[in-house]
Amino acid sequence: MMPPYCPDDAPPGERALFKALAASGETEGWIVLHSLAIASHIRQVQGEADFVVIVPEHGVLIIEAKSHSSVERLHDGRWKLGKQAPTSRGPFQQATEALHSIREYLTVRDVRLRSTPMLGAVWFTHVRARTQLPKSPEWHDWQLLDSEDLRTGASAAILRVLARGAEHLESKIPGFTYGGVGPEATAAVHIANVLRPKFEAAIVQGDIRRIRETQMAAFIDEQYDALDNMQHNRAVLFTGLAGSGKTWLALEAARREIELGHTGRLLCFNRLLGQRLKDSTADTPGLLTSTFHQEALRLSGVPVRVGAGTAFWDHELPELALEALLERGDGESLDFLVVDEAQDLACEQFLDLLDLLVRGGLQHGRVLLFGDFERQTIYEGGAGLDLLRKRIPDLSTYNLTVNCRNLPRIGTVVKKLSHLDPGYRRFRRDDDGTDPVFVPYRAGADQSTFLAEAVRNLKGEGYRLEEIVVLSPLRSGSTAETTTDAWLRQVLHPADGQTPRTGHLRYCTIHAFKGLDAPAVIVTDLDETNTSSFEALLYIAMTRATDRLTALVEAQTLRAAYGGNV
């Protein structure tokens, strides 16, 4: 699809047809140009083709898409489309003019079109025009497509039109299809490049960033309905798979409490996520934002111990903070408590401390929890959900089922490899037709070459280095950390939770990046034989990618676990 997105302000019929073609599994090798401007139009100063569909070995189809809910041909020959004023220039004339303009443009530029059917069609996306419009000498019946064609399969309908059109041309020009129908695959790419040169990619990528950001923000706004529906419940647990908007909702929940005049805490588990939350709430007076352990350090007054192990962080530090709170009384209890990544904090020693941080305690205080207890419990032992219900007897639960982060093809792969059942109810973002990439490597082999190639491929698509993050399940000795590639060593920088600097390619562990996302993610060192909680970490890593995912997977792991069919 060129461009790989459909603008929000495009007519609904164009959006529906774009989505159908982008999501189709029957369009391998096709090239679809959407909204192709025609400067040298045969009739107008400026024209446009809604869709130019280039299908190797079948032909080129120029489609005029009409979204109107009613179509009428008046007695005087004019067209009445929906509520628009009648016009003598009908949709089939528009399609024909666009077809001849494009053919002339290609011919002048010496593009060989011999045996390549170039055809025009009109697609009424919202009405059953094939049964409602009378036959006319002004068009062939095979040039008319409607809502039923869109419902039963857009790609099949296009192939039908191209086949019928080729038969028509053969009947009028004997020998037209002799030797096979064009264009060949290379010729198809050439036609697309002539009609929409590569320089447009830079413009499109900038638009893609804007579209991604505005779409995700809009979709998260829809998720806010969850907060509205549960506003009268004192204690609520919002659960959902990765990408369902839990962190955004946690931020919004805290802001809403502050707007009511309350004071409170917004806590999470991971350091990088904690930094992002802190940056996002820096201008929110009355809200204390931190990670659980940073807050425990502040409350206890003990300094960070260099090289401290899990015994300190999981047991000693919470106990010291608890003792300090009990000594000083109720001064640290605030009006509300919002906890993101609740699945990682749902253990007795952590809950004991959280109990003293909200007025009324966990049992009677205002507590809003957000977590994925199904797939992201890589720190807590697995009984956390039952423990929460025990500590908060009247805890209400709201399940988030809509994915508003990942493109559908990424989410579909996640569902397959992570065995999600039932998985996401639906995806809010439209697919752009690009599949995740899985690259096998031999156990113990250096992955630097694969990593460098993956980064360069993403740069070739228009992704900036700061939009890419490299993740690994290894806490030390990862490919990004140990690479000897001179270029990679120059651009790679550890992720620090701050806004990524221009030209910096970030890397960190999967554990540390939990709760965050990036436009493009490359996952390295995926070897089930040396990684504990492999399936959970793979799930977390893949769901960090909003638009592009590349995974370097040890060959046997890929073959044994997934049959190599990814």
Structure report:
It is a single chain. With 566 residues, the chain is α/β, with parallel strands linked by helices. Helices cover 39% and strands 20% of the residues. It has 21 helices and 21 strands. The strands form five sheets. It has a six-stranded parallel β-sheet. A six-stranded parallel β-sheet has the order 16-21-20-17-19-18, sandwiched between helices. Helix 16 (408-417) links the parallel strand 14 and strand 15. Helix 11 (292-300) crosses helix 12 (310-328) and helix 12 (310-328) packs parallel to helix 13. The longest helix is centred in the middle third of the chain and has 24 residues, at 200-223. The relative contact order is 0.09. Mean pLDDT is 88; it is low at 198-204.
SSE layout:
Elements lengths: L11 H12 L7 E8 L8 E9 L3 E8 L4 E3 L5 E3 L9 H18 L9 E7 L4 H4 L11 E2 L1 H6 L1 H19 L12 H11 L4 H24 L1 H5 L5 E6 L5 H14 L4 E5 L2 H10 L6 E5 H9 L9 H19 L7 E4 L8 H8 L5 H4 L1 E6 L12 H8 L4 E5 L1 E2 L4 H10 L8 E2 L9 E5 L6 H13 L7 E5 L6 H4 L3 H6 E3 L10 E5 L8 E9 L7 H9 L2 E10 H8 L4
